[in-house]
Design brief:
This protein is mainly alpha-helical. 48% of the residues lie in helices and 8% in strands. It has helices at residues 9-33, 39-64, 138-165, 178-188, and strands at residues 97-98, 103-104, 110-112, 117-119, 124-126, 131-133. One of its GO terms (cellular component) is membrane.
């Protein structure tokens, strides 16, 4: 447990949250606002389902894709001292060497204590994907974040619309109105 690619509680939590928001948007908000028998309702269900599937697919890729390993045979080229392509430690001027992996590290490579290896261009270790974000999976991580943010704003719009249109129009809009309560609840989602 704890190694990249394994299913953990945070991964199950993310998938459950995606499923809950999908269910709420598609089966509660859209029918209350547009109805599932209308062209607008079907179009919104199709669009949101496509966005949710893209989000889940990107999440699956970022969870399973290797973030980028430092090749075990990596040795920095130190022949040309005038134009160094290798990174030098700030203290002492030595080349960067990982004591845990027992090899030299290229620039921006760092050792992850969770993954127990050096990662190329390591950004961070993310518990929500149980993996590091590095050179090989950085792009798909950003794509997942973009899909998730887009789906969140889209579901927010659907839930606000569903909350506003699920209450009868002739209701008094007092301070304790259920319409305002539904609006506030949809903002919290």
């Amino acid at each position: 447990a704890g190694r990249p690619g394994y299913v953990t509680l945070p991964i199950i939590s993310v998938l459950a949250a995606i499923g809950y928001v999908y269910y709420t948007a598609v089966f509660l908000a859209i029918p209350a606002w547009l109805g599932l028998a209308t062209a607008a309702g079907v179009a919104n269900v199709a669009a949101y389902t496509t966005l949710a599937l893209a989000c889940v697919a990107a999440y699956g890729l970022v969870v399973t894709r290797d973030p980028g390993r430092v090749p075990p045979a990596f040795v920095p080229d130190v022949e040309d001292a005038e134009t160094p392509l290798h990174e030098i430690k700030r203290k002492g001027g030595d080349l960067r060497y990982c004591q845990k992996c027992s090899h030299y590290k290229p620039p921006r490579a760092h050792h992850c204590r969770v993954c127990k290896r050096c990662i190329l261009k390591m950004d961070h270790h993310c518990i929500w994907i149980n993996n590091c974000v590095g050179h090989e999976n950085y792009k798909i991580f950003l794509v997942f974040v973009l899909y998730a943010a887009t789906a969140s704003f889209y579901s927010l719009a659907l839930m606000i619309g569903g909350a506003l249109h699920s209450v009868p129009k002739d209701e008094q809009s007092g301070i304790d109105s259920p319409r305002k309560s539904l609006f506030v609840v949809s903002l919290c989602v």
